[in-house]
Specification:
Length: about 160
C-alpha cells in the first residue's frame, strides 16, 4: 500500500491511549513518591469541576462527529469537517476536553506528577497528532478547511 492510498492523518498515537498510559504512569509515580500539590482536600472539588468541564466538552464534540457521519478515531478517514457545537470555538474540542479530564484527575489524586507528565503529553499531541491531522485535513478538504482554520482557533 502506498502512502498516497492511505486516507488518514498518520497520527503517532491514539489520544485516549496516550492520556491513559500517562495517567497510569502518574499513579505509579505517586505510589512511590506522592508529591502532593496542596496539603488539603481543595484539589478534590477543583479536580471534579475540571473533569466535569472536560466531559461537558467531549460528549457534544463526539456526538457532532458522529452526527456528521465522520470517524472519531483519528486512524480512520475523515469524511466531513464539523463546524457546529464545540467545533465553533475550537478545532480540537475532544483534545481540549480530554486534557481537562486528565488535569482534573491530577487534581483529584493531588500529585504534581500529572502536571510534570502533561508537558510531554502536550508535545506529543501537538506534533504527533494535531499537526498531522491539520496537514491531512488541508490536503483532503483544501479551501474549505483553510477557511474554517481562519475562523476558529486550534485549541481555545
Amino acid at each position: 500500500m502506498t502512502t498516497s492510498s492511505v486516507d488518514n492523518p498518520g497520527v503517532v498515537v491514539r489520544p485516549p491511549l496516550l492520556y491513559g498510559a500517562a495517567f497510569l504512569a502518574v499513579l505509579v509515580l505517586r505510589w512511590f513518591w506522592p508529591l502532593p500539590i496542596v496539603g488539603h482536600r481543595m484539589t478534590l472539588w477543583s479536580g471534579l469541576a475540571l473533569m466535569g468541564l472536560g466531559i461537558a466538552i467531549i460528549v457534544p464534540g463526539r456526538r457532532g462527529l458522529e452526527a456528521a457521519g465522520t470517524n472519531v478515531n483519528p486512524a480512520l478517514p475523515t469524511t466531513a469537517i464539523v463546524t457546529s457545537g464545540p467545533y465553533r470555538f475550537s478545532r480540537n474540542p475532544l483534545y481540549v476536553g480530554v486534557t481537562l479530564v486528565y488535569v482534573g484527575l491530577t487534581m483529584l489524586f493531588n500529585t504534581w506528577w500529572g502536571v510534570f507528565l502533561l508537558v510531554p503529553i502536550l508535545l506529543v499531541m501537538h506534533c504527533g497528532v494535531v499537526l498531522r491531522e491539520e496537514r491531512y485535513l488541508e490536503q483532503k478538504f483544501g479551501e474549505t478547511y483553510r477557511q474554517y482554520c481562519s475562523r476558529v482557533r486550534r485549541y481555545l
